[in-house]
Amino acid sequence: MTKKTIETLETELTSAITGAADIDALEQLRIRALGKKGAITDLMKTLGRMSPEERQTEGPLMNGLKTRIGEMIAARKTDLEAAALAARISEETLDVSLPVRPGPEGRIHPVSQVLDEICEIFADMGFAVAEGPDIEDDFHNFTALNMPPEHPARQMHDTFYLPAEEGGERMVLRTHTSPVQIRTMSSQKPPIRIIAPGRTYRSDSDATHTPMFHQVEGLVIDESTHMGHLKGCLEAFVSAFFEVDDVEMRFRPSYFPFTEPSAEVDIRCVFKDGELRVGEGDDWLEILGCGMVNPKVLEYCDLDPERYQGFAFGCGIDRLAMLKYGMNDLRAFFDSDLRWLRHYGFAALDIPTLGGGLSR
Ligand code: PHE
Do 277 and 179 share a structural domain? Predict the structure, then answer.
């Protein structure tokens, strides 16, 4: 009789446990079976009223039922918990990826680009970068460069003068980067090997001249540097800058008060299909002025011209940019027109390197 009851109860409970939809339902079931007033508990209580013989057969049956149902509930609980966790995980997805950052929007101005390229090339040849002020005194811009007050070469410079100061001196907006030669030679002992890029000013304006423009000065001073070094250095520069192996250069005798002898340098080139090809064709294009530093300039800087010598050159950066990147009106450089900059500008993170290519 009891055996029958036990089997029925086990069948009932087993199917109820398997069918329990969630943990709460299972817990209700556990209370109903094994709780204080649960069916199995009630059943166990009947043991007390049984004879010892009956108890011996019924006891193990009931205990067996209790153990099996307890284990079954525990197993079902583990299953339900795992299923609940899996459901939560698939429901609560979290997107941990960041949105892609937009690329940098600004563009590098061609002048800055060319300046970086020039610095990269000369740094590779062991030159340091030197600087000087845009507002210069007469001594550094003219006199020390062997242009005394009445020197006719001063007239070639279309100088912007500032109002006279109290002491009577009129400062100027530097007309070239050559005053940085003077500042460097007066403050450093040779050997000197510098380039000095920067803004320069002359009262002039048309498609190839703007009142503010950029130059880069070069200066090498030691005890043995000669004109051959100047030629070799400029050749290496021009070939690296225009990214061609063979550049033919022409050194034309010229005159600058601060160099002796002086030369202007032309490169062989041709304009084909709207673009400049360097190293071919029959045209010659002037790109810079240079020469051996005049002994008088060395004297102005307290350097002994019997001991020291060297070369200098000066070159228009904007002009180099126009030639290399095919822009034909210099004035547009300084119009701050974003459409122009987006077209002719360079990607912010493409820093020119000799190894990786100057102008990718
Ligand atoms: N300073 C000269 C100019 O502006 C260029 C130059 C520099 C020439 C150095 C010779 C040596 O025209």
Answer: yes
pLDDT in tens, 26-84: 999 999 988 899 889 988 888 888 888 888 888 888 888 899 999 999 999 999 999 98
**148, 354 in Cβ contact below 8 A?**
no
Q: How many residues does the chain have?
A: 360
pLDDT of residue 50: 87
Residue 95 lies in a domain: no
Answer yes or no: is pLDDT of 1 > 60: no
Report the nearest-CA residue for atom 2 of ligand 1: 314
Question: Does the beta carbon of 314 sit less than 6 angstroms from any atom of ligand 1?
Answer: yes
Whether 167 and 269 map to the same domain: the answer is yes
With a 6 Å cutoff on the Cβ, whether 312 touches ligand 1 is yes
Q: For ligand 1, is residue 256 a contact (CB within 6 Å)?
A: yes
On whether residue 349 sits in a domain, the answer given is no
C-beta of residue 221 within 8 angstroms of C-beta of residue 191: yes
Residues 80 and 126 in one domain: no
Please give the residue range of the domain that contains residue 53.
Answer: 3-87
% of the chain residues with pLDDT over 70: 99
Q: CB of 319 closer than 6 A to ligand 1?
A: no
- Kindly report the protein residue whose alpha carbon is nearest to atom 10 of ligand 1: 290
Distance between Cα 316 and ligand 1 center (Å): 9
* 337: CATH: 3.30.930.10
360 band by pLDDT with thresholds 50, 70 and 90: low
Q: Would residue 134 count as lying in a domain?
A: yes
* Ligand 1 pocket member 178 (CB < 6 A): yes
63 part of a folded domain:
yes
Question: By C-alpha distance, which of 32, 33, 26, 37 is closest to 66?
Answer: 33
310 lines ligand 1 (CB under 6 A): no
Give pLDDT tens digits for 233-271. 999 999 999 988 888 899 999 999 999 999 999 999 888
Q: Where are the beta strands (DSSP E) in 187-328?
A: 192-201, 212-222, 249-256, 259-272, 275-278, 283-293, 309-316
Name the residue with the closest Cα to ligand 1, atom 4. Answer: 176
